Amino acid sequence: AIRRILDGKLYLSEDISDTIISKLLHGRTVENVDNPADILTDREFQIFLLVGNGFGAKEIAVKMDISVNTVESHKKNIKDKLDIENTAELNRYAIQWVIRYEKKPVRP
């Protein structure tokens, strides 16, 4: 690393290199996904819409007749696929998406 820098070259850690390469290859991040349905499974997209309509994990579990753990697992997959860091960011993105594209939120 030090030699590369001393030679005037760029040095990136392996983690950063992997992240950059992955994003270049997959090109799937919140910034460039117009429709999450394009990369989410049907079940993940259903959960995404429910999150965007203000439902919590327990409510989603009851509504979809699945366990809370299954909901959380789907939410983790959604965050991974959309390159979302945390639940608050997922909630914010899902709500904004529903307001912009769904026109008729399930909840007022």
What labels would you give this structure?
single chain, 108 residues, mainly alpha, Arc Repressor Mutant, subunit A, 2 domains, 63% helix, 0% strand, elongated
Indicate the topology:
Layout: H1 2-6, H2 14-26, H3 42-52, H4 57-64, H5 68-82, H6 87-102
What's this, in brief?
This protein has six helices and no strands. It has helices at residues 2-6, 14-26, 42-52, 57-64, 68-82, 87-102.
Give a description of the structure.
It contains six helices and no strands. The protein is mainly α and 108 residues long. The chain folds into two domains: 1-29, no CATH class; 33-108, Orthogonal Bundle (Arc Repressor Mutant, subunit A). It is 63% helix and 0% strand. The chain has helices spanning 2-6, 14-26, 42-52, 57-64, 68-82, 87-102. It starts with a helix and ends in a 6-residue tail after the last helix.
What composes the largest sheet?
none
**Domains (count):** 2
Strand content: under 5%
Mean pLDDT across residues:
82
Give the name of the CATH superfamily of the largest domain.
Answer: Winged helix-like DNA-binding domain superfamily/Winged helix DNA-binding domain
Uncertain residue ranges: none
Rg from Cα: 18 Å
**What share of residues is helical?**
55-70%
The CATH class name of the largest domain reads Mainly Alpha
Specify the number of helices: 6
- Overall 3D geometry? elongated
